[in-house]
Amino acid sequence: MFENIKKFVAKLGLKITALAGREYMGMSVREWFGMMDTGIMTSANIFVDSDKAKKTSVVYSCLRILGGTAGSLPCQVFQRKGDNSREPDTAYPLYRKLHDEPSPLMSAFTYWQNVVCQIHLHGNSYSLILRDGAGRARDILLLDPLSVTTAFNDGHWNYIVDRTDSKRKEVFDQDDILDFPNLFLDLKTNKALSTIQAGAQAIGLSLATERHSSKFFANAAVTNLALKYPGKVSSKLKEEIKKYIQEKTAGENAWSPLILSEGGTLENFTMNAGDAQLIESRQFQVVDVARLFGLPPWMVGAVEKTTSWGAGIEQQMIGFVIFALRPLLSMIENELNRKLFREYKRFAEFNVTGLLRGDNKSRFESYRIALGGNQLPGFMSQNEIRKLENLSPDPDGDTIYTPTEGSAENGQTIETIDEQSEPGNPAES
Questions:
Q1: Given its phi and psi angles, is residue 312 left (phi above 0), alpha (psi -120 to 50 degrees) or beta?
Q2: What separation in angstroms does the CA of 302 have from each of 21, 272, 352, 355?
Q3: Does residue 115 contact residue 128 with C-beta atoms inside 8 Å?
Q4: Containing H/E element for 63?
Q5: What is the largest CA-CA distance in the chain?
Q6: Which of 195, 176, 173 is nearest to 59 (CA)?
Q7: Is 77 in a helix, a strand, or coil?
């Protein structure tokens, strides 16, 4: 049914603008298309759907950065200890699933990359939890968001999945579906607004600008030619001259020499890309679309734009992690923890430490303080720091430095006073 509707929409193609004002079943064509996740007809007369949007350079770049960064981060399983500390639980069966291979069908990088892309393209990303006889998760299968519909039943959400591997529709309880939503969750359908839907107008304008630029340069950026003749020109000659000019100035024949007869003279009115503000318009659309995805312009190639996230690549990267990536990862972590783990002492978390590492000088200075520089108490061992730097452990590197009684700040020695000695007399060593 849904595939037939998609084919019908595809057949409409350029005719959608003529239908936009009509209503079907009480909804406008725009609303109908939006409900079926087939796209939105924008004010620029450009039809924008997830498939067309992801093929534009700026949307592809945003998805590549967000999805690729999330996919490169290790998702680890930790165990809470009694002293409020935690440690990676690599022996737990789900550790390998989340860290290396959610299912035999794909690696962890591919899985997390596509989860993030689906969230932005479709509003929700769904995964089926396959459990063993004891109810423990054994595999996590990524689903096609367009094959999933929802229904609220007896206080629970049911997910109706049209699985291609089983050739039939199956109904799953909410406890067996990982549902990662974008912003603006619709409580009636449990569907969220996709970034593509939210920014359809901006993406449509970007596509319209790109289409106009292509035509502009395909015609050698010539907007008008004025031909002057000393006398009256017949209609037949006008058509012949018009056809001749079009053949000589368009496409592959651009810049070919023109030969005019009958005493005609040519005035060329050209408009270059700068005068037409095409380059400026396209640059603005890059920034506008990047803003939708929460990315600073420099990350998608708009290097002429500055950022208020701080000076230097280190501060800007920290801003990217805090404002763009961390909220997305926290939402994913919450869904994993409430549906995959039946006990509070274990939880999943993405390790973003590598993204927050500064330059060598700043990093080594922080390590020096962590080790107990200036005779202050240390809070990290040499091996903990060596692990962060991907170095092998030192046999004697597990001790955390604690200053002795005779040491002081700045590395100076303090003379101690024996409690039994008389005031004013130096204590015996």
A1: left
A2: 37, 21, 25, 21
A3: no
A4: helix 57-72
A5: 126
A6: 195
A7: strand
Angle at the Cα of 55 from the Cα atoms of 51 and 58, rounded to 5 degrees: 125
Which among 142, 66, 126 has a CA at the least distance from the CA of 328? 66
CB-count burial class (<10 Å; 0-12, 13-18, 19+) for 336: buried
Taking alpha carbons only, the member of 372, 373, 375, 370 closest to residue 408 is 375
Report the distance separating Cα 377 and Cα 405, nearest Å. 12
Where along the chain do its domains lie? 1-36, 202-278, 359-411
Separation CA 174–CA 271 (nearest Å): 59
What is the rounded distance in angstroms from the CA atom of residue 247 to the CA atom of residue 225?
A: 13
d(C-alpha 27, C-alpha 19), whole Å: 12
Strand partners, 124: 181
DSSP codes of every residue in 81-143: -TTS-EEE-TTSHHHHHHHT-SBTTB-HHHHHHHHHHHHHHHSEEEEEEEE-TTS-EEEEEE-
Choose among 27, 30, 26: nearest CA to 9: 30
Cβ atoms of residues 323 and 294 within 8 Å: yes
DSSP string across 149-191: EEEEETTEEEEEEEETTTTEEEEEEGGGEEEEE-SS-BTTTTB
Query: Which amino acid, one-letter code, is at 333?
Result: E
Contacts of 108 (CB under 8 A, 6+ apart): 71, 75, 98, 99, 100, 101, 102
Q: How far is the C-alpha of 59 from the C-alpha of 198, rounded, in Å?
A: 13
Confidence grade of residue 159 (pLDDT, cut at 50, 70, 90): very high
**Band of pLDDT at residue 305, cut at 50, 70 and 90:** low
Three-class SS of residue 80? strand
- Give Cα separations from 324 to 49, 122, 129, 329 (angstroms): 23, 18, 27, 9
75 with 180: CB under 8 angstroms? no
Give the rounded percent of residues in the chain with a pLDDT score beyond 90: 35
What percent of the chain stands above pLDDT 70?
69
Tell me the C-alpha distance between 224 and 389, whole Å: 63
Bridge partners for 47 per DSSP? 41
Predicted pLDDT at 270: 57
Position with higher pLDDT, 414 vs 62 = 62
- Taking only the tens place, the pLDDT of each residue in 114-156 is 999 999 999 999 999 999 988 889 999 999 999 999 999 988 9
What's the angle, vertex CA 145, arms to CA 140 and CA 149, rounded to 5? 105
